[in-house]
Amino acid sequence: MSISQQFNEAVSKALSVPADMVTDELEYQSIPEWDSMTHLVLVAGLETTFGIAIDMDDVLEMGSIGKIKTLLKKYNVEVV
After folding, report:
1. HEC profile for 26-75?
2. Residue 58 CB partners (closer than 8 Å, separation 6+)
3. Alpha-carbon span 38 to 53, nearest angstrom
4. What angle do CA 22, 17, 72 make, to 5 degrees?
5. What does R_g of the chain's alpha carbons equal in angstroms?
6. CB-based contact 52:80 (threshold 8 Å)
7. Using CA atoms, how far apart are residues 34 and 80, in angstroms rounded to an integer?
8. What is the pLDDT of residues 29-49, one digit of tens each?
9. Is the dihedral of CA 47, 61, 22, 3 positive or negative?
10. pLDDT of the chain, 80 residues: tens digit per residue
11. Quick check: 51 and 72 in contact, CB under 8 A?
């Protein structure tokens, strides 16, 4: 499975949304499924999937899927 597929699966699972909803434009709190609790579930899912520990400052910056992809580069996770 590619990194992009792993990413989409982790986000889809954490937010309980179909994978086709996982686009760069999807933003925190733009859908009912992405609230503060599921944000933490999403962070935990990404950490588990990619074997990383995301800094709290970065967790607070994760305002959209596009932003998350950019932040993950800092952890050597390149989601294309």
Report:
1. CECCCCCCCCHHHHHHHHHHHHHHHCCCCCHHHHHHCCEHHHHHHHHHHH
2. 71, 74
3. 17
4. 40
5. 11
6. no
7. 22
8. 999 999 999 999 999 999 999
9. negative
10. 999 999 999 999 999 999 999 999 999 999 999 999 999 999 999 999 999 999 999 999 999 999 999 999 999 999 98
11. no
| CATH fold for domain 3-75 | 1.10.1200
Amino acid (one-letter) located at 16: S
The amino acid occupying position 44 is A
Find how far residue 70's CA is from the centre of its chain: 10
- Which tokens in the block code for residue 77? 């996770």
Pair of tokens at residue 17: 């949304």
Asked if residue 22 lies in contact with residue 12, where contact means CB atoms within 8 angstroms, the answer is yes
Q: Going by C-beta distance under 8 Å and a sequence separation of 6 or more, which residues neighbour residue 47?
A: 53, 54
Residues 66, 25 contacting (CB under 8 angstroms)? yes
